[in-house]
């Protein structure tokens, strides 16, 4: 699967390359969204400045290769996203957060991923976890396992469905046979270089899909080596409706989420976005503390009803 370029974060948007969702594939396990960005010179791109915005029904997974981003959310969590350290935010019934690259960051390069929450857990309390996995290594390869288990290592980070997430770096020409759970479907996102995944040739920003039934995934790095993210999970088994920053189950739920966010951040008289969302009741999504950036208003809904993704 090849990416499409989309803007991220409102008027001063930075470009990202998106491989999930696509028309013919919406999920890999519970993974429902995958953005890949950089390496970008902050002096040219302006870096990341994503003002407060809402989420429901999902977990965000932030993974950096280069740079540093400050995360703030309405549950009171303030944390840095750094290379080889995962930040997992649970939106549950509703949260808002901001993501801003630090002044010290000169090059920004990473991935932003979402995980759909199952119906039984999608209204859970908001939450946050940070984890810095130790490196595991072998002949011609190195890995950091940030979710699930792979290559003899396991992450303690809790998820609501079984998941796999790992960064794997391969030296030029290295062949690595990775044992995997045959009940999982997998995706291999190529960050740098090129790699053959089974019989699929993939270059930077491509996402190779491996269906259930595979007991191993064979990775062969090209002559320049490769860095990849290996993602996986059992088929999600539920339909979702995903629009803007929300994951729900019906069109009408999304309409309600949008209305709740707009009602929270706009002046009821003028309809303008307030400079500080603390000026109104925090509502479903709460308020990001000590964040002067104006909240991002939701775009207009399409004329047609939103369709289910399976």
TrEMBL record:
Chain positions covered by the region annotation Disordered: 291-310
Superkingdom as given in the UniProt entry: Bacteria
Domain (Pirin N-terminal) ranges: 16-115
Residues covered by the Pirin C-terminal domain: 167-262
Family named by the database record: Belongs to the pirin family.
Name of the featured protein: Pirin
